[in-house]
Amino acid sequence: MGLDIRVPLGVMFTTLGLLLTGFGFFSDPAIYQRSLGIDVNLWWGLALLLFGTVMLFFGWRRAGRRTH
Amino acid sequence: MHPSEIDWVIMGVYFAFVLGVGYALRRYVKTSTDYFLSGRSIPAWVAGLAFLSANLGAQEVIGMAASGAKYGMATSHFYWVGAVPAMVFLGVFMMPFYYGSQARSVPEYLKLRFDEKTRGLNAISFATMTVFSSGISMYAMGLLLNLLLGWDFDTSVWLSAAVVLIYILLGGLTSAIYNEVLQFFLIVFGFAPLVFLGLKDLGGWQGLTERLTHVATAQGFAPQAWSSTWSQMGDPTTNPMGVEWFGVAMGLGFVLSFGYWCTDFLVVQRAMAADSMSAARRTPLIAAVPKMLFPFLVIVPGMIAIASSLRTGASGFVLPHKPDGTLNYDLSIPMMLSHYFPHGMLGLGLTALLASFMSGMAGNVTAFNTVWTYDIYQAYIHRGASDHHYLNMGRVATVFGIALSVAAAYVANHFNNIMDMLQLLFAFVNAPLFATFLLGMFWKRATGHGAFTGLLSGTVAAALHHGLTLPRGSIPGIKGGWLTLLHAYPSEMAQNFWTAIWAFTVCFVVTVAVSLITRPRAENELVGLVYSLTPRLRETDRAWYTRPAVLGLGVLAATLLLNLLFW
User: Fold this and answer.
1) Residue of chain B whose alpha carbon sits nearest to that of A21
2) Domains within chain B, CATH numbers bracketed
3) What is the pLDDT of residues B385-436, one digit of tens each?
4) What chain A residue is nearest to B9 in terms of C-alpha separation?
5) CA–CA gap between residue B393 and residue B391 (Å, rounded)
6) Among residues B404, B390, B394, B365, which one has the least CA distance to residue B164?
7) Contacts of B17 in chain A (CB under 8 A)
8) For B514, phi and psi rounded to 5 degrees?
9) Looking at the whole model, is its pTM more than 0.80?
10) ipTM of the assembly?
């Protein structure tokens, strides 16, 4: 198929990861009482960010190979 | 807890991507094969994840968590017994005929193998069924979004219908498949932290199983009844499901599971869209790997919910009660999301639910428009038109398929019992299906007349069995026993499993009997459609570990190990 799914997948999860990490960094720590004192936004945001960039890396690497 | 700005932004990002992917894919749709079968160009891993997600609608997610609360770890029978073996069988033994025959749909395979009437029966019942199931899941979504987001029923139904309509009109099956892959990762990323937090709250797996012993003894079962899969299955009275091992193995593990995973076009379509025969065969095998791990994502939350409702963890989570005073198991996942997730993560969890609702609907719609166009419209209404004509018909079918689903959602909202009756009727039609495919693919002597009469008698047998039996303690009516009462089963689930076993057996016997007295088709017409007449596939060009048989054995061994670990 013309569009490699890893590109939209990567862009979406990178965006979500940035949003969550950013929000986790600046939000009031009091809201993390419900998540047992863990800043899940920050930590899980980083996990999404990592997943997103890995997907992007593989998606773009293939796109790069095809154009050369 | 209602969503705040950050949660809406996260949901908004998802909607933007869903529509964006549809928009980006629109220029690849040139022929009807592009629209209905993604031009048979999907890589195996993408098709595999879509194969899994197409079945993982939000109803499934919510229902499995509810069963986790109601029956405990034994619910994983629906995965480890009721799905994985059938998926392996599909990939190793059946895909060669589905993909190799170049059939564009499951009913079309029946047409190639048997005859027109068998195809017609299957196509019409399948098309009706998919539209209604899509409506029922839309209805469930309306109720849930009302609770979680505060939207009213009309807004939820029309908004989700519009989004699904747009992306399927633009990109066809490829849109649906790509969104199923997005949904897969959203479910994993949305629910994994929920399970983590829930378990942490209860003191880990140890704390969970310790609490579950109280859940079990409080209801009069052995202490391990909620945390084991097989150990209490010797007798229906010793486990909360009310079933015994034979019903599980035969009814669920053989008839129901093979009937669904190996013949339902909704899932098989994803494998048919794969880019090669070997990719098509690997599709269900790849799907089986996450499938066997999903109990930890969707069943364990229900177990956490019931365990903490009896003896709360540090954070004091409990399930809400229904008006009749019993615990509302269906709210396990939604309530845990709003209990454990702060704003931000809440948005991600809600997005995962939204995504699974919408892709569940999209799966039904793409299966419907294909069967409608190829097996009903092209077969009976308008033959021999140009490919472009059928492509346009597919788009029109998408619009009226969604319109019919919306209508069904409103019917479900007003007349709940009509939907229950329809679902029962579909269960009767589906129960015998696997016998027909099994004989069709592996017995060259099976004939069209045999298949057709077998299917009809299997359906009648299912209805009769249902009319003559009843789960203990129920009143005759929608639960069964509407003819007279011959036998009472310990539970509704046991009755379902045995209905399936009877339907399968009757269909099998009648198909064989009628085939033997009717004229078989010439053997040269059945090459590529029947096992014994089709040349074996050579797989020497592939690395050994990607071969379907090897992958399949690996998956089965891992599933067996899981059964033993949680025995």
Assistant:
1) B344
2) 5-25+40-414+536-565 (1.20.1730.10), 428-530 (no CATH)
3) 888 888 888 889 899 899 999 998 888 888 767 767 777 777 788 888 899 9
4) A19
5) 5
6) B365
7) 8, 11-12
8) -65, -35
9) yes
10) 0.93
